[in-house]
Amino acid sequence: MATALHNLSEYDASKVPSAAGMRFGIVVSEWNHNITGPLLEGAHATLLKNGAAEEDILVRTVPGSFELIYGAAQMAKSCGVDAVIAIGCVIRGDTPHFDYICQGATQGLAALNAEGDVPVIYGLLTCNNLQQAQDRAGGILGNKGDECAVTAIKMVDYKKKLR
Fold first, then answer.
1. Quick one: CA dihedral 15, 9, 23, 126, positive or negative?
2. How far is it, in rounded angstroms, from Cα 155 to Cα 163?
3. Torsion angle defined by CA atoms of residues 70, 72, 74 and 79, in that order, rounded to the nearest 10 degrees
4. Which of 45, 62, 77, 88 could crosslink 67 through cysteines, CB 3.0-4.6 Å?
5. Residue 104, exposed/middle/buried by CB under 10 A (0-12, 13-18, 19+)?
6. DSSP readout, the chain?
7. Mean pLDDT lowest for which of 7-11, 122-126, 157-161?
8. Paired sense of beta strands 137-139 and 142-143, if any
9. Tell me: the pLDDT tens digits for 35-69?
């Protein structure tokens, strides 16, 4: 959803359900912390702004973006959360490592969503350069963390309405 025509931090607050009583897990990669830190801050602030209680937001770190899969799976299984937000950032380098990490992390997080009972929100930036990442971590395109938090709230609400 990140384009030059869409600010990741802009959303219609009237279309976001209250997050009161919802419990969220955020698993965040330590790698590229200069990007993942602001993404985490955005997600955390947006959850609070929409009614989540501080004590209902659990934050844990993993070393890198590939480890988001395990971190999200364990959080969904063991922490009593209603949704998990997976936050990471991979920036293209000179080797195919970028492709392997992006593909593996994407497939792993998608599998958790398809097979699990807890929504896992994809907050992995896959950028060609540092500027693209900065633009999406509070820069000119807003903060992907905000978007992920709103998505998490909406998915918890979606699940509640199915019952």
1. positive
2. 13
3. 160
4. 62
5. middle
6. --BTTB-TT---GGGS---TT--EEEEEESTTHHHHHHHHHHHHHHHHHTT--GGGEEEEEESSSTTHHHHHHHHHHHS--SEEEEEEEEE--SSTHHHHHHHHHHHHHHHHHHH-SS-EEEEEEEESSHHHHHHHEEETTEEHHHHHHHHHHHHHHHHHHH-
7. 7-11
8. antiparallel
9. 999 999 999 999 999 999 999 999 999 999 999 99
Give the pLDDT score at 1: 44
Query: So which residues are the catalytic ones?
Result: 97
Q: Is the pLDDT of residue 79 over 70?
A: yes
